[in-house]
Amino acid sequence: MKLLLDFLPLILFFGTFKYAEGHADAAAAFATQHFGFLVSGGQVGPQEAPVLLATVVVMIATLLQALLLKLRGQKIDLMLWISLALVVVLGGATIWFHSETFIKWKPTGLYWAMALVFAISQRFFNKNLIQAMLGKELQLPAPVWRRLNWAWVGFFAVMGVLNLYVAYHFSTSTWANFKVFGTTGLMLLFTLVQGLYLSKYLGDDVKEDAKP
To answer: What b/e readout covers 19-49, taking b as 16+ CB neighbours within 10 angstroms?
Structure first.
């Protein structure tokens, strides 16, 4: 259930974008009629409508996601707070300025923010966030936890750069495909490689001071 809730804004963004892209004129008329007051000039063109409507949907979905967790008494994790702030600010800018560029920066902003949080927590506060999240399920040597944390820092940093490369070198439709399928695939691949690396440390005889 939580996994579906986490991916719901992304799924809705993609579905809305693809549908509106295939019905551009109708999407432009709908966006102008219902959201024109949010747009500079009050008019939405067929080229702008898909990403604008998808942005409106993902903003609403992310807000509802946070609200639902709050109402259920569950903790809203840091990534969702950062995502919510970015989608409101950058999504609002995309809608007002008729510019897809702002929302395209949202994934990069989220990736780089998480990289900074993981790095600063480890470097200056000696707090390993990966260990904090997984420490109850995994018993690993301290050096391995540190390597794991820095590996995620590097992964997030690279993903942020990769998102910008696709955003600026390919069409918005290609970027939307990459945002859903490309990033998800890369995340799964990274997690798989990480699991293979960790497998040799998961035996019963692992010691805290063990070396890889």
So the answer is: ebbeeeeebbeebbeebeeebeeeebebebb
pTM of the entire predicted model: 0.87
* Digit-coded pLDDT (tens) for 57-97: 999 999 999 999 889 888 888 889 999 999 999 999 999 99
Burial (0-12, 13-18, 19+ Cβ within 10 Å), 103:
buried
pLDDT tens-digit map of 86-125:
999 999 999 999 899 999 999 999 999 999 999 999 999 8
Residue whose pair of structure tokens reads 């696709």 in the numeric block: 166
CA torsion 32→34→39→43, rounded to 10°?
Answer: 10
Residue 64: Cβ within 10 Å count? 13
Task: Judge contact between 91 and 58, C-beta under 8 A.
Answer: yes
Task: Name the DSSP class of 44.
Answer: -
